[in-house]
Amino acid sequence: DSGVTQTPKHLITATGQRVTLRCSPRSGDLSVYWYQQSLDQGLQFLIQYYNGEERAKGNILERFSAQQFPDLHSELNLSSLELGDSALYFCASSAPGQGHNEQFFGPGTRLTVL
Amino acid sequence: AQKVTQAQTEISVVEKEDVTLDCVYETRDTTYYLFWYKQPPSGELVFLIRRNSFDEQNEISGRYSWNFQKSTSSFNFTITASQVVDSAVYFCALKASTGTASKLTFGTGTRLQVTL
């Protein structure tokens, strides 16, 4: 158990809908990262937050947004869902420091868009 | 731009065989960090090791060992005396030190199947 929690574990929804994925980092970690794992794109970085502020952005679609709250949990919002958004979404966290600490991943949320 | 290549898509071995998973990386940064993660069938990503670019010492942890060679931009992972529980997808990842962003660039993974 990495100490990173994600809810829900599975999510099935329809095209055009909006969903919210939730992540709680390990105790003491200030950085939260979101990654998407799909068969065609592999593991891709979406976005990073550090202590409530956006720190880096990857190939995140405009239909996707995220935030990190004062209690450090994070939410990833996916809207106007398309079939191609079906994927495993991971949240990771890392200890504060020099930025090269290992990232510990949550169990993931498997999103299925029908 | 950074890139990680894991040329072996899938490897099958019989239990107790040794197996090496290859990882080749590209980066223009002089300081960078390399990682290996394991993704078992249950789906979670498990951290295995981090290596700094300025530390070329090889590392051994039980049946696992890692060989880091800057000259060939490789960071290979060897499992000695493989076991069925080693069956998983293994990912190599790279993080550059530029700026404060800490995103990982992953390879496409190598699926290891260990059979009896």
List unreliable stretches of 5+ residues of chain A: none
Oligomer: heterodimer
Helix content of chain A: under 10%
Shape of chain B: globular
- The percentage helix of chain B is under 10%
**SSE string of chain B, helices as H and strands as E:** EEEEEEEEEEEE
Rg measurement of chain A, Å: 13 Å
Count of extended strands of chain B: 12
Q: What is the CA–CA distance across the termini of chain B? A: 41 Å
Keywords:
heterodimer; A: 114 residues; mainly beta; 7-stranded mixed sheet; 4-stranded antiparallel sheet; B: 116 residues; 6-stranded mixed sheet; 0% helix; 53% strand; globular
Record the SSE blueprint.
The complex is a heterodimer of chains A (114) and B (116).
Chain A: E1 5-7, E2 10-13, E3 19-24, E4 31-38, E5 42-50, E6 53-57, E7 64-68, E8 74-78, E9 87-94, E10 104-105, E11 109-113
Chain B: E1 3-5, E2 10-14, E3 19-21, E4 24-26, E5 32-39, E6 46-52, E7 59-61, E8 64-69, E9 74-79, E10 88-96, E11 105-106, E12 110-115
Parallel strand pairs in B: 2-12
Antiparallel strand pairs in B: 1-4, 3-9, 5-6, 5-10, 7-8, 8-9, 10-11, 10-12
